[in-house]
Amino acid sequence: MTDAVPPRLLVLRALGFGDLLTAVPALRALRRAYPGHQLLLAAPARMAEAARATGAVDRLLPTSAPGRTVPGRIDWAGPPPDVAVDLHGNGPPSHLLLRALCPARLLAYAHPGTPDIPGPGWRDDEHEGARWCRLLSWYGIRADPRDLRIPAPERPSPAPGAVVLHPGADAAARRWPAERFAAVGGALRAAGHRVVVTAGAGEARSAHAVARGAGLPRSAVLGGDADVPFAVLAALVARARAVVVGDTGLAHLATALGTPSVVLFGPVAPRLWGPPRSALHRALWRPDGDAPRPGDAHGDVPDERLLRITVADVLEAVERLPEPGPRRGHRPHPGTLTGVEG
């Protein structure tokens, strides 16, 4: 006699690290709404540890595509999903990808190109985290966009109490100049702070340039040739004095762990992708007006609004941050992620 296979709930969010963390409230809401389902997340394989940390995902289904495009396929096996949820986009490419799996129920935003799928209307001027909570609320699933926190890992930090500088981003438009990060690092080091620099895969040259300019040893750089493993990165951020970062994934990790942060914005307004309003976080932005997307977030040169942020602005913001408080997170769901499927 074999055990009954639980119904499966498939969530599509085949995007980056920060995208996953902004979707934590929606993932937790789905976990609560479907406690007897196996929740599978279609996302890049490198997100496995971060997905585990949410406490909401049972299994990762490796799925990816270049940039922010919709994957061409999902390697699904077995009976169709009981529920499929589109947390990836708002149009036919992601809708049709999920509909091809013949789910019993599909939750998605409405779009004229797929008129048979009901759902709420898309809003361009909406915070990314609130967007997906509103989608679920429309379908009768209670979701709280403030439910962002994840537990700090048990492992020790490689640099406890350090100020973490992260100069990288996946587009030049969101990269504050390396020489300015170096100036911030040098000033913080001179003031008695321990300073470390983190880097994603392929960002070693820039990170080491920041370290040299700040008068830091090579050992102050973590990552660069490869990504810093999530467990190490989470331990570092959880026990950091502060994080100074552009509009990228590490900013969302600082929010998730309750670590004070200074986040630098340029082409996109903080009200769309920024941290929650809190004394723990300072979002710096120097726009011309009130447009939420005044620049190209994927542009190949630093955005002019980002360049208006000065070294003095950042140092003042760091000085005004409170000391980190106790780390409190959510207890994982009993069916936490146990592996990578595929």
If you had to describe this structure to a student in words, what would you say it looks like?
- The chain has 342 residues and is of the alpha/beta class.
- The protein folds into two domains: 8-138, 3-Layer(aba) Sandwich (Rossmann fold); 163-320, Glycogen Phosphorylase B (Rossmann fold).
- It is built from twelve helices and eleven strands.
- It has a six-stranded parallel beta sheet, sandwiched between helices. It has a five-stranded parallel beta sheet with strand order 3-2-1-4-5, sandwiched between helices.
- Helix 9 links the parallel strand 9 (242-246) and strand 10 (261-264).
- It starts with 7 loop residues before the first strand and ends in a 22-residue tail after the last helix.
- 49% of the residues are buried.
- Residues 328-342 have low confidence and may be disordered.
Helix content: 25-40%
Radius of gyration: 20 Å
Number of helices: 12
Mean pLDDT: 93
Along the chain, the helix and strand elements come as EHHEHEEHEHEHEHEHEHEHEHH
Main beta sheet strand tally, sense and closure: 6 strands, parallel
Per DSSP, what share of the residues sits in E-state strands of 2 or more residues? 5-15%
Overall geometry comes to globular
Specify the CATH homologous superfamily of the largest domain. Glycogen Phosphorylase B
Number of domains: 2
| Uncertain regions spanning at least 5 consecutive residues | 328-342
Q: CA-to-CA gap between the ends? A: 26 Å
CATH topology heading of the largest domain: Rossmann fold
CATH architecture of the largest domain: 3-Layer(aba) Sandwich
At the first level of CATH, the class of the largest domain is: Alpha Beta
- Secondary-structure class: alpha/beta
How would you write the strand order of the largest sheet? Answer: 8-7-6-9-10-11
